[in-house]
């Protein structure tokens, strides 16, 4: 079972969302510590080791470090625009 890091990012994002949506996102994030590379995950082009999974209309961007057995949540945001990727670019340069 992988360790999860970055849960503060997730908790900050979940504040203000409808409870049902927040629960779905939280469930998806917590599932990453059991299966860090689920079937619906995709590696991000140009960002080796970074992946994304979707939960409804939201996207979860994370980094998986197999050597450390660590899943680090980097961003959570809406899928329907490129804002998540713009934030990722600003974050990682």
Could you please say which CATH topology applies here?
Answer: YaeB-like fold
Biggest sheet: strands side by side, in what order? Answer: 1-5-4-3-2
Considering DSSP H and I runs of 4 or more, what fraction of the residues is helical? 25-40%
Principal-axis shape: globular
Largest sheet: 5 strands, mixed
Q: What number of domains?
A: 1
Instruction: Determine and state the CATH class.
Output: Alpha Beta
CATH architecture: 2-Layer Sandwich
In brief:
The protein has helices spanning 7-14, 19-31, 83-92; strands spanning 3-5, 42-43, 50-55, 58-65, 70-78.
Keyphrases for this structure?
single chain, alpha+beta, 93 residues, 5-stranded mixed β-sheet, YaeB-like fold, 5 strands, 3 helices
Report on this model:
This protein is an alpha+beta fold. It has one domain: RelE-like (YaeB-like fold). It has 3 helices and 5 strands. It has helices at residues 7-14, 19-31, 83-92, and strands spanning 3-5, 42-43, 50-55, 58-65, 70-78. A 5-stranded mixed beta sheet has the order 1-5-4-3-2. The relative contact order is 0.21.
Could you outline the blueprint of secondary structure elements for this entry?
Blueprint: E1 3-5, H1 7-14, H2 19-31, E2 42-43, E3 50-55, E4 58-65, E5 70-78, H3 83-92
Parallel strand pairs: 1-5
Antiparallel strand pairs: 2-3, 3-4, 4-5
